[in-house]
Amino acid sequence: MLNYYHTHLFTLIALVAMAEMGLTSFLINRGNLHDTWFSARYHHLLILALFNSVWTTIFAWTYVIWILNGAMHLFASIAGSALWLLITAILWGTAGGVIATTRGGGDCNGDPPLTRCRQSMTVMALCWTEFGLCLLTLFAACMWVSRSRRDYRGAYYVPA
């Protein structure tokens, strides 16, 4: 049962990371081309978000492939995925929080749909989405482990 949900959650994590990768690489390319940045710090934060999305995409797809192949690899275990999810959640939470404080402007009301403000808000929203998905998957794994603890009494045990 866990493999079923884990596979879907990790696939969703990978797909959101791929969307983040496309958007951040576009914004980095566009900013380098026209030399238009909110600040130098924002440029570095976009590179951090790009690194996070590449990291997440590689490891999430690797985990999905290991689970679907039934491989008993160290990193395909619950402990391995929990460690990976914790590290990834910390990376995404840090990126989302720092981007939220660094991003220029706040409200994009009245701006056309395809503006730098809205694209920047989308980067931040995808960071928080990845953070939430990682925590949800980590919570689901922990709940599965706590619910599937075996009762070490043998089948011969009859309650008094």
TrEMBL record:
Transmembrane segments: 12-33, 45-68, 74-100, 121-146
Record has Transmembrane helix as a keyword: yes
Domain of life: Eukaryota
Keyword tags: Membrane, Transmembrane, Transmembrane helix
Protein name as catalogued: MARVEL domain-containing protein
Gene source species: Sistotremastrum niveocremeum HHB9708
Organism placement in taxonomy: Eukaryota, Fungi, Dikarya, Basidiomycota, Agaricomycotina
